[in-house]
Each structure stands twice: as structure tokens, then as C-alpha cells.
Amino acid sequence: MPIPGLNIPYEFRKMLNMFLILMGIAIIIYAVLWILAKLALIPYVFFSIFPQIILLIIGIFIFYQAWINRKQY
Q1: Is there a contact between 21 and 13 (Cβ–Cβ < 8 Å)?
Q2: What pTM, to 2 d.p., does this model score?
Q3: Interhelix angle 44-68/10-38, nearest 10 degrees
Q4: What are the start-end ranges of the H helices in 1-73?
Q5: How far is it, in rounded angstroms, from Cα 4 to Cα 11?
Q6: Distance CA 72, CA 20 (A)
Q7: How far apart are CA 10 and CA 34, in angstroms?
Q8: Around Cβ 33, how many Cβ atoms within 10 Å?
Q9: Largest alpha-carbon pair distance within the chain?
Q10: What gap in Å lies between CA 23 and CA 60, rounded to an integer?
């Protein structure tokens, strides 16, 4: 249900929704890795480089969305 007085273009809403889904998945994976690291089932080295991996994935996602939508405007 749209919020009255808040007109968000459909393309922006779609990209925002995909970005929020990506962030939700990243938070879930991060939480699972944290639990596994605390239980000593995975080494802390992998857990410590995970934020950089997430930043790389987010950067690739933003670049991909910009590349796909470059001719739209």
C-alpha cells in the first residue's frame, strides 16, 4: 500500500528493494558466520575478512545496477 504524499519512482523503489534484500542476506550470513566462529567451527581469519567480502559484493551490485540502467535516462 503506497504511502500518501510519498511518490517514489518505480525504478528507484525496485532498486531499493533489491538493495534491502541484499543487505538482509548479508546480515543473515554475517550472523551465521559469527555464531560458527564463536563455536570454533570456522577459523576467525575467515570471519575477520567477511566484511570486506560483503563490501565487494555490494560494490559489484551497485555497479551492475548502474550499468543495466545507464540507458534508461
Answers
A1: no
A2: 0.58
A3: 170
A4: 10-38, 44-68
A5: 18
A6: 22
A7: 36
A8: 15
A9: 51
A10: 13
Copy the grid coordinates of residue 41: 567451527
Name the 3-class secondary structure at 5: coil
Q: Could you tell me how far CA 15 lies from the centroid of its own chain? A: 11
- What type of residue is 8? I
Joined together, the cell numbers standing for residue 55 give 563490501
Could you give the CA distance from residue 63 to residue 39 in angstroms, rounded to a whole number? 36
Contact 65, 15 (CB under 8 A): yes
pLDDT tens track for 11-57: 677 777 778 888 888 788 878 877 887 888 878 777 777 777 777 88
